[in-house]
Amino acid sequence: MDPHPPKYVMLPENQGSIRPPPYRRNVPRYQSKSHKSGGNCCLRCICCCYCFLVLLIFLLGTLAFYFYAVYQPQVPSYKVEEFTTAHFDMKPDFSLYTEFAVTVKADNPNSKIGFTYGKDSSVEVVYQDSTLCSGQIPAFHQGYKNVTMIKVILKGKSDFGSGLQEALMDNRKSGKIPMEVKVTVPVSVVIGEFPLRQFKVQVTCNLVVDNLTPNKKAGILSNECFPKVEF
Ligand SMILES: *[C@@H]1O[C@H](CO)[C@@H](O)[C@H](O)[C@H]1NC(C)=O
Asked: What residues form DSSP beta bridges with 129?
């Protein structure tokens, strides 16, 4: 109610502002022109970005294709070759001291890619989710088309519990002892002379051996290894 009277009062006061409309008529033309050129600029920018992106994707694709064609990368394979028990001592308190010598065969089938195995590795022998013993593989470089036997000595004392001890005794009697050998190792991929970034490789081998008799090489009944790479 009150705002209406002020509006009528305002008009005479704004007489000066009535003039601008003619100017404004002109101004929009310039503005619309400048808007148009601004839009063109934006469009050009987006176009450029698109062209650049397409080019980049094309280049990366070509590079990847070239890399695969020239280097033909292949995943190395692993296998437990030998499993020998040095100690297998069940203690009356249900703890178990074990010492195994495990030989893992690492096969690098690549003819242009090498691998460097780092220091901070770990190897574990696991029986029914309990770690029996552990060790480390030595750091080494594996060249092209190379097969290396990695010998690892694993030692450890585990608190075993009577249940597991019984299960293991049963397995030993039946001559089928399921074990897991877990290897975790940092691996650098080396192309030519250039080491690329390091990956954490985890190899899990499901193993069934026929005996755990000290100082006797175990027969390996089943042996499947699954490599997994953590990026
Ligand atoms: C494979 O690499 C290992 C470790 O570098 C080396 O000791 C061995 O001689 C190589 N084997 C062959 C067949 O080149």
From this structure: none
Taking the C-alpha atoms of residue 19 and residue 27, their distance in angstroms, rounded to an integer, is: 13
Residue whose CA lies nearest to ligand 1 atom number 2: 142
Q: Give me ligand 1 centre to Cα 146, in Å.
A: 6
Confirm if 141 and 115 have CB atoms less than 8 A apart: yes
Element (H, E) at 14: none
State the Cα–Cα distance between residues 198 and 185, nearest whole angstrom.
Answer: 10
**Residue pair 207/178 in contact by the 8 Å Cβ criterion:** yes
pTM of the model: 0.69
Please state the atom number of ligand 1 nearest to the C-alpha of residue 141.
5
Residue 122: both structure tokens together: 């770990």
Q: What is the pLDDT of residue 40?
A: 80
